[in-house]
Amino acid sequence: MAETEEAHLNGAYYGPSVPASKSYHRPSRGGGPLGCCCSCIFSLVFKIIFAAVVFMGLAFLVFWLIVRPTKVKFHVTDATLTQFNFSTDSNLHYNLALNLTIRNPNKKIGVYYDRIEARALYEGQRFGTVTLTPFYQGHKTTNVLNPVFQGQQLIVGSNLLEEFNQQKSAGVYEIEMKLYLRIRFKLGRIKTGKFKPRIECDLKVPLNQNGNSVSTFQTEKCSVDYFNY
């Protein structure tokens, strides 16, 4: 009996074969068709955006080389102030006439001035407003406008009279003029949309009474802001 059991234990095994264990491979992150597709789309979008930026840059460069756009220039060349005084009720009585020159230096760009509003200010407070006649300005031309501010306006302020008396003693008043425009540009037959630039002119105007003044007015260049509001 012992020999039979020993022979059975030492003999070959003729049962069914044991299947080999399968190894498990964990999928890597970002791999597979989905990750590759997203990468391709991102690369394509980047290339399109880059090409559009380069194209726009080249188009702008070509436009600038051909047209050479230049800012329109504004100067106040003369100012006559014959009345500028406060009454006891804080009303400012004024009579101010200005010569404003507008120079379009562009060879291929014209300007439509659809609306021109001029405002006069003293110590930051507006005392006069006039609306000027619209016009078209051609290439390399100069136009002269003559805004006149006349009347009276209530103006109050803590340091207003102190500043006024100092300037009265000097005989020269610091007055600001602002232009509020609505304009369009014309290039050939093409007209742009409307722009609303603001022009600011800081003036030192001598009081001229009976044809006499302590000094002469000096031409002032105005600042131009095309995208102020």
Structure description:
The chain is α+β, with helices and mostly antiparallel strands and 229 residues long. The chain has a domain at 73-225: Immunoglobulin-like (Sandwich), CATH 2.60.40. Helices cover 24% and strands 42% of the residues. The chain has 3 helices and 12 strands. The longest helix is centred in the N-terminal third of the chain and has 36 residues, at 32-67. The protein is elongated, with a radius of gyration of 40 Å. It starts with a helix and ends with a strand. The mean pLDDT is 84.
Descriptors for this entry?
Immunoglobulin-like, 229 residues, alpha+beta, elongated, five-stranded antiparallel β-sheet
CATH topology of the domain at 73-225: Immunoglobulin-like
Q: Helical stretch count?
A: 3
Q: Classify the beta-strand content into a percent band.
A: 35-45%
Sketch the major β-sheet. Answer: 7 strands, antiparallel
Could you tell me the number of beta strands?
A: 12
Uncertain residue ranges? none
| CATH class group of the domain at 73-225 | Mainly Beta
- Measured as a percent range, the helix fraction is 10-25%
The radius of gyration over CA amounts to 40 Å
Structural class: alpha+beta
What would the principal axes of the Cα set say about the shape? elongated
Task: Write down the secondary-structure element order.
Answer: HHEEEEEEEHEEEEE
* N→C terminal distance: 112 Å
Mean pLDDT: 84
Q: Judging by the overall fold, what is the CATH architecture of the domain at 73-225?
A: Sandwich
Topology readout:
Elements: H1 2-10, H2 32-67, E1 73-86, E2 91-104, E3 109-122, E4 125-132, E5 135-137, E6 141-145, E7 148-154, H3 160-170, E8 172-187, E9 190-191, E10 198-206, E11 220-221, E12 223-225
Antiparallel strand pairs: 1-2, 1-11, 2-6, 2-7, 3-4, 3-5, 3-8, 8-9, 8-10, 10-12
